[in-house]
Amino acid sequence: MEEFSLKMSEQNESDEVKQARADLRKDFLAALSNLEGKTVTSLGMFNAASTKSANPSTSSENKTEVKFLASDREQLHFVLSNFKTPTGDILDSAIIRATDIDHLSFDAKNFE
After folding, report:
1. Could you please report the per-residue DSSP string of 47-67?
2. Do residue 75 and residue 96 come from a single domain?
3. Count of structural domains within the chain
4. Is 13 in the same domain as 64?
């Protein structure tokens, strides 16, 4: 029943609202594609043993330069290159679940 009511509300949206949603989605996808190949300046991962955030990309022993490559359609997974695992292994590429990530940061200078 809930799915039906969602569809009905979408049908009742004005053309103006529909266009605004389309514009927001287009802008979001453009911003996401602009991240492709950019260096991640800070990557916070949730520790599997607790809810505390570990920060492998900015820890003193991690000198790797992680790059953002892509995400899936729903942004549930991210592809990163040169990723250092908690065990110290460096992977050429890794698919990371969004639920394991506390934060991803990028340097704004890379987007000018």
Report:
1. -TTSSSEE-TTTSTT-----E
2. yes
3. 2
4. no
Q: Which residues contact 50 (CB under 8 A, 6 or more apart)?
A: none
- Bridge-partner residues for 33, per DSSP? none
**What does the pLDDT average to over 33-45?**
87
Q: Is the pLDDT of residue 103 over 60?
A: yes
Q: How far is CA 35 from CA 52, 91, 110, in A?
A: 27, 20, 9
Separation of alpha carbons 77 and 19, rounded Å: 28
- CATH code, 106: 2.30.30
Range of the domain at 65: 36-112
pLDDT in tens, 66-80: 899 999 988 899 999
Task: Report the phi/psi class of residue 22: left, alpha or beta, with left for phi > 0 and alpha for psi in -120 to 50.
Answer: alpha
Question: Mean pLDDT across the stretch 95-105?
Answer: 87
At 30, list the tokens. Answer: 């453009």
Residues 76 and 45 in one domain: yes
The residue count of the chain comes to 112
Please indicate, yes or no, whether residues 63 and 49 belong to a single structural domain of this protein: yes
